[in-house]
Each structure stands twice: as C-alpha cells, then as structure tokens.
Design brief:
Number of strands: 0
Largest sheet: none
Order of helices and strands: HHHHHHHHHHHHHHHHHHHHH
Structural class: mainly alpha
Number of helices: 21
Shape: globular
Radius of gyration: 23 Å
Helix content: over 70%
Strand content: under 5%
Length: 446
Amino acid sequence: MIKRLADWRVRSWLILVAVIALVERVFLYLVYRPLSYNDTGSYQRLAKAILAGWKGYDGTRTPGYPLFLTLFGTDERVYAAQLFLGFLTTLLFFYITWRIGGRSWLAGLVALAHTLNPQQIFFEADFLTETLATFLIILSMAFLTGMLYSKEPRMWKVLGLGLLTGLAAGCAALTRPLFIILPFWTVFFLLVFWRVRPRIRWGGALLVGLSGAVVLGLWINFVYQRFHMVSLTSMTGFHLVQHTGLFFEYVPDEYATIRDVYLHYRAEQIAATGSPGNAIWDAIPALEKATGLSFLDLSRVLTKISIQLIIDHPVLYLKNVILGWIWYWKVPIYYKADSFRFSWLGTFSKWIILGWRGALVLINLGFVSGSVLLVWKRVQRTLRMDVFLGFLLGMLWLTSIAQTFLDHGDNPRFLVPEQSLVVLIVSCWGTQLFLSLRKKDENFSA
C-alpha cells in the first residue's frame, strides 16, 4: 500500500486535494463568521454541565458534541477545530475512494466534491453536530476499508481495525443518535458478506460489535441510572410528537390539558411559518406549567400518548413517515449571506449554493433510482458492486428509513453526515457505467 501511495499520480492528486481543502478553509475562517442556531444553546448548556462534573446534565442531548465543545472551549477554537475536522474528512474521502478502485483521479474528484460542497463547508462554520458526526462516520468507514481491502488480512490487523471501526461508529452514535445502527449493521454485514477465513471474519466482526456496544452501553446505563429510561436521550416523547403532533387533536380527553396547550402552540406555529413542525419546542414550558410535570415526566407521558396515537391512527403516521423520507433528500445548506465580511461574497455564494443544491438533488435521485435498478443482475454486473459499496448502500437505506420513523421535523438535516457517501457511490456507478459503455463501443468498432 505504501508503494502505491508513492505513485506520482496518487501523490499529485492527494497534494492537489489537500492544498485546495486547506486554502478553502483558511479563506472561510478569514471571511465568514460562525453561526449559532436553535439547537446550539442546548449543546453549550450541556457542555457547561460537563465542566461542572455532570451536575445538571439532563440527558436532552447525547454527549458527543457537548464534549467536543468542552474540549475546545471558545467559539473561535471550536470553529477552527471543525474546519480542521473537515480538512481531515476530505483526506479520508480520498483514501476511502482510492482503496475502493485504485483510481487516484476518482479519489481526487470525490474528495474535492466533498470539500467544495457548500453544504459541508458551511456546516463546518455552524455550531451544530453535523461536522463532528460526518468526521466520525467517515473515520469509521476508513478503518473498515482497511479491513475489507487488505489482500492478506492478518488477525492482529483485523482485530485492531475492528476495534477502531466500532469505537468510531459508537462515538458517531453518541454525536447523532440516528447512527446507533452503524456498529450493528457493520457486524451483520461482515458476518454475512465478507468472504475471508471464518476466524478472521468472526474476529473482526466481534471487535466491531463489542467496542461499539461498550461505548453505547456505558452511555445508555448512564441515562438509565440517572433518568430511569432505556434510551440515548431523555427526549423520546418530544421527538415522537414531531410525528403525532400533526394529528394531536385525536388525543383522548384523559390528556385534554396537554392536548389543548399543544394545539394552541401548533396553531401559532402554522400562522407564523405555514408549517406545524417543531411546535413542541415552544410548547414545552407551557406544558410543564399547565400539567405540573417535570421535563422528564412530560417526556414519558408524551411517549405514551404518541405510541397510542400511532397505534390508533397508523395511516396518518405512515403518511408522515413517507413525507419525512422524501424530505430527507432535499439537501439543506445552513448559512447566512450576512455572515460574510464582504457583502459581494454573500451575493456570489447564493448562486454557487443554488447550483450545488440542484446537482446534489440530482445525485440523490440517481442514488435512489440506481438502487432500485440493482434488482436486475445486468445492472449489478455493469455497476460492479463490491462488498464495501454494498455495505454503504445498505447503510444509507437503513438510515433513510430509520430517521423518518423516529422523527418528523428536520429530516433534511439527517442526511448531511452521509451526503458525500451518496456522492461517492454515484461517482463509482458513473465510472463503471462509462467504462462499460466505452468497452462496448471499442468492441463494436473492432
């Protein structure tokens, strides 16, 4: 592998990618100010609770991003750290793509697609979880490719990479709970589809599963001991109301106080934004006051109410599920033109963002349609899906489905940490399709 990395084409592409990624982030740091959003305050509050010895940590968020904030302290340091993580993520994309097919030019283009994507670069300037989650997921994928593409995998190497894969995947789940499925999907896929000696396969899968389970288990035990909930957070009830809140008028009179207060806030949210989404977050203080319930008890009651509503009205729930799945592919870009030091940059960026969003929506559409076409063996042979691409395909579909069953609000944000993996897959498909068509053309000409 070291010899292959020393190849001048690989080295040239890697240097080009690294220089562009670094210059872009230095430029952004100088001309664009980081932004806070509605979620930011809760992460900062929990970071302070961690610094105080976990006193007052209410479990509303998993600890990944609050710990990251405590590590770097000031906003400027966090901003710089996130830009550095984005730079490392770009290099990891180069490595992963290069390991898949050995094509340095494709690795360079996929890495550049990530680093030049305004969705990714602007999230690096936002005090939100996306950049850290993206880095941890791609780090896990990099360790996994080291396992899967070793020509002669040795037990000690597989065990080490399996341990690192599981730890990174577990930490990704503690940053964004949606990715709790990642270590377990990895274990399943290795056991079923990895064609190596059984001893190697079971050893690698076991280390991935154990390390991921230990990370998650320690946190779930913390939540259970403190809040008597078997969950990653204490917010389950509030997230479910994102779904059931759209038909909350069907709540029985037993919970009339909760129902009526929420419906009032839902009406205000619709009047202000045209959408009932996220009304629960404004309603929480009024619900606590009207019911006398604590935050945790209110979450438990809302969980009970929501589960019963879903059972009683499955069609309404599934309607939201389908809509949330469609929203998932919408490619959100969180930024503010006013945050640029120079107004002309804000104006110019709008056109770049518009073009990128259009391109990424088409790529997402290509991913979904290509996935469906893979049911035909001819398409499978043309696109030459290997074990790692199959793993990514399954992971992306699992998360796209899981996210919409669990929440119905900011669904478009949930794809952000995996968006560049979609680009990677579609790029590999496009390359294989081009090579296949060229081969046919050469055979026809001959």
